[in-house]
Amino acid sequence: MKSKRISIFGYGVTTKPLAKHIKNAVFYDDKCSEPYGGVYGSFVRPAKEFNPANSDLEITSPGIPPSNPLIKSAKNLISEYDYFENTMPLKIWISGTNGKTTTTQMMQHLLEDKRSLAGGNIGTPLSELDQNAAIWVLESSSFTMHYTNSAKPNIYVLLPISPDHLTWHGSMAEYVADKLKPLARMKSTDTAIIPTAYADTKTEAKLITYKDEDDLASHFEIDTSKLKFKGAFLVDALLAMAVDKLLFQRVDYKKMNSFELDPHRQEELRDSKQRLWVNDTKATNINATLAALKRYEDSYIHLILGGDDKGVDLHELFEYLKSCNLSIYNIGSNKERLSNLAQEYGVKYYLCKNLADAVQKIDKNLLEDEVALLSPAAASLDEFSSYAQRGNEFKEAVTLL
Fold first, then answer.
1. If one looks up domain 267-399 in CATH, what number appears?
2. pLDDT tens profile 81-121
């Protein structure tokens, strides 16, 4: 039997390890100008050299947009998830707009004693996960699910959906459709925990729907007063615990409370005057910023906003801001747009040169019982190498006050 000719689109972190599993793999990459030898005996060629007539199967890096010529010319396109569809581990997929990483980490923390491994968008490609593990806990992006057409999870956990990556997907409707796509392939033996807003989605899976943390706590009989997590993190923790209870009938408060959050998401620090500053640089969309605002709504907030907003409609954000007790400090490539909206909605604002300038301005205004919050509702790549760099520079500026 003739072996399949497999083409791999993109030569990056997600796709490179596929060469371990695919003999004589051929990668096509936009950054490649001349052919060269790749890892594990593979070959790397310029994207323009791809010929669908010479390929039986194409596996794409999830970040490549549908508009890319490689995607448009592919005839047999699948995702990394599809390629590993028939592996043995029980598969849990976690998706949604905000909280995917934290929920995945929390779930892995609870399930590690049951031989689980975490991967997917969280950092470890499926091609590097041990197929002899009992469970794969996979953070699953909308990009991956857009290209996944046959694989399905045994358990699907969906966090709330709000506008994000709209340029990549084309519209909010398409973005939501990709998030809901796995449900159509799930069977009656599978379980999906999803927001009530999507309860009418067609699926054979057992559906458990929730409106908020109270719904989750009530359905799974979890006492939230015994958990240290608050705000958005409480939903993440409850979803992780819900899966642990579904699989193993456990509610382990001690184990859950031993989980330590990553930096850059509602990370609190104090300056030399013991005033509270919050690094929420990972809030790269409106919903994440709203979650942070709700957490600190009992205090006056000095909010740093701005960056690359990816063209989303910001009126929803300002409809909320106009009723908040706060001032905003606008930075980044959309700071003029933010300032115009602040004027339109009657929100007090400061137009800042950059992040350091915003910190300096807040330093002059921040009172002891108030909160300074970096929660930009925008991506960071307009002025920083990553959201982490933005958060680190924020923290450094605060320590120098």
1. 3.90.190.20
2. 999 999 889 999 999 987 888 999 999 999 999 999 999 98
